[in-house]
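Q: Okay, next protein. This is Putative sodium-coupled neutral amino acid transporter 11 from Diceros bicornis minor. I've checked the sequence twice, so it should be correct. Can you predict the 3D structure?
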Amino acid sequence: MSFVYGSLEEPTVAKWSRIIHVSTLVSVFISILFATCGYLTFTGFTQGDLFENYCRNDDLVTFGRFCYGVTVILTYPIECFVTREVIANVFFGGTLSSVFHIIVTVVIITVATLVSLLIDCLGIVLELNGVLCAAPLIFIIPSACYLKLSEEPRTHSDKIMSCVMLPIGAVVMVVGFIMAVTNPQDCTHGQEMFYCFPDNFSFTNISVSHFQLTTQLSVLNISICQ
């Protein structure tokens, strides 16, 4: 994060704070907008990826998938850039020669590409990323650093909170890892919805049929009671 902060033209705390808040609010607004529109359109059939709800012969949605792919292609180098910088700082003292610059970049891209080709479902990847990366970054590492560097007495409220958060983070990481490995989620992406086939009814027909069936059952119940 500090690396991105340093890339600003005039890095200041106020500018960085403004960028973080605006980008987060815009992301939340877009996510809520898409989630709301998706649910109102497909209701109980809404998939985790809204593109999965649309049929493959929908040209407009195909163009949307293309645009999404372009954004991923343009975003990926940014992540690679940060990863390469971290490797350079940890293993090479912060500087890379031209040869090592190319080698590290190729290795990062190759490993990421192989993982993406070998793993068909991203669910397990996101779960392992959360328990092995997010939990230590949020709970374990900050608490351990504070306990190590702070000169406050052990009875101080901040140290007590750190002592509580540290084992909680460790438990979350271990339990989350075990659950992610032993109970993998089913991956159902790439399957067209039933209404994409011409032999199936549309949403309107399904709603009308359900309403007619409910009405008929109600009339039958009244007739029986009489």
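A: Here is a summary of the prediction. DSSP finds seven helices and no strands in the chain. The first helix runs from residue 2 to 6.
Q: Noted. On to the next one.
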